[in-house]
Amino acid sequence: MKVLLTGATGFLGTHILRDLLHRNYQVLIAKREETDLSQLLHRFGELDTWNIEDKGLESLFLKHRDINAIVHAATDYGRDNSKPTTTFWANETFPIRLIELAIENNVSLFTNIDTFFNSSQALYDHLGAYTLSKRHFQEWGQLLGIAHKINFANLRLYHLYGPGDSLHKFVPTIVERCLEGKEIDLTDGLQKRDFIHVDDAASAISTILGAELNREYGYHHYDVGTGMSVPIREFVETVREICATEVTLNFGALTTRAGEFKDACADTKALCSLGWKPMVGLNAGINSVIQDVSRRVSLRVNRQSRHKK
After folding, report:
1. Which residue(s) pair with 153 in the sheet?
2. What pLDDT score was predicted for residue 298?
């Protein structure tokens, strides 16, 4: 199978790439010209990459007329005061153009990595531009799928975590602060999340890819999670316990965001009907993050120490 992957350098994208290569798929990578591929090349060796600027996408489809599927994992979160047009281009303009090219070149399947922020609970004000743009693109995919232009599989991903994620994200931040013994200010922690390990997410995506490839054109939706949610309070307390620290957890010190999801839990019936099931338990998943964060923090400290000398 020949698969075009976007977002290959991202946290999830790297794990998708590893899983696809492990399954002996031929993977083409669409990327921005300035994207640093050094870590991917060091890890996976030679890769077939294409810049998306200056008709690069068109050239890709001209050379590879036998692409079976697209996995669209690239995204822009609208953080750091980025312009709305930047988020709009990355999450709507670019993938819509990608769908156009897929339709023009008879690609069988477009697989979109959606987010649990994109739900009927639209009052949540966190990452608003990101959520809005993801909703718009999902609706475009639904429109084109129902019109029988392409088979569009929408994969709504729940709370992703695992080794390799940004140290600024929620789970690595909690782990690092527990390891350092620093007290942590939190909301009341009563909101519940479906935490899915990145290895399970990557295997779920590959499972759906295989199942959807030969289906007729249409729109199909999958929630990608474990099907079980746990309170944030319980999750953080578990991290503290596994880290074997007495760090103080100040639940209620922070105000809950407006429109906060009370219980974000995946409905996994469609996914599990394909024979998939999560393999990484919560404790094992947290342990994998602890080991990864410990290693990365140690490397950071060593670099800082050498720099001071």
Report:
1. 111, 220
2. 86
Question: What pLDDT, on the 0 to 100 scale, is given for residue 82?
Answer: 78
**Exposed, middle or buried, 301 (CB in 10 Å: 0-12/13-18/19+)?**
exposed
- Using the Cα atoms of residue 100, residue 103, residue 106 and residue 109 in order, give the sign of their dihedral: positive
Q: Quickly tell me which residue has 């990459």 as its tokens.
A: 49
pLDDT confidence bin for 308, thresholds 50/70/90: low
| Mode of pairing for the β-strands spanning 263-264 and 192-193 | parallel
Helical H runs in the chain?
11-22, 38-44, 56-63, 84-88, 94-104, 128-146, 170-180, 198-212, 232-243, 269-272, 282-308
Query: How would you classify the pairing of strands 159-161 and 195-197?
Result: parallel
231, β-bridge pairs: 192
- Cross-strand pairs, 154: 112, 221
pLDDT digits (tens, 9 = 90+) for 39-52: 999 999 999 999 99
Tell me which amino acid residue 154 is: N
Dihedral angle over CA of 139, 29, 74, 31, nearest 10: -110
Q: Which residue has the tokens 């599990």?
A: 272
| CA neighbor of 289 nearest in space, from 231, 243, 228, 224 | 243
Identity of the amino acid at 64:
H
Closest C-alpha among 122, 242, 250, 305 to residue 130? 122
Q: Contact, 131 vs 124, CB < 8 A?
A: yes
Give pLDDT tens digits for 179-206.
Answer: 999 899 999 999 999 999 999 999 999 9
Average pLDDT score over the chain: 93
